[in-house]
Amino acid sequence: MVLIIKMLVMSLLKEITDYKVSSVLNNDRKQFGKKYLFDGNDETCWNSDQGVPQWVQFGFSTPRTISKVKLQFQGGFVGKQCVLEAVTGQSNDGDCKFEFFPADVNSLQEFVCSSPITSQKFRLTFRSSTDFYGRIILYHFQILE
Length: 145
What we know:
Elements: E1 16-21, H1 29-32, E2 46-47, E3 54-73, E4 79-88, E5 93-100, E6 109-129, E7 137-144
Antiparallel strand pairs: 1-3, 2-7, 3-6, 3-7, 4-5, 4-6
């Protein structure tokens, strides 16, 4: 008898209760706003304004555990040094961190946390960018349990 155990990885996107971003290109929220981070549409994106760091902060109604992040950037506008962290208290300083380094490509990239992070609020910070001006263009952002 063979026993097969299948691990179900669940997307947490539908459970996000609030989110914000560091900036939007030319303050054009209608075309490049934060709402496009989680819409699943290949034709829309969040486009940050210039400057580093850039970030996306999101929260849930109850604590959740993140074990995997999937990102799809536009090549040339990729976050080079990224940190996913749990945000605690008023200071927004994360005490649990996962650092990763995406490639400068257009394809969906997957990053598995070395240690899953549990919190009610999270921040993904792009400490640097492949763009000279520090802009980030993100088409898909998935967080998985």
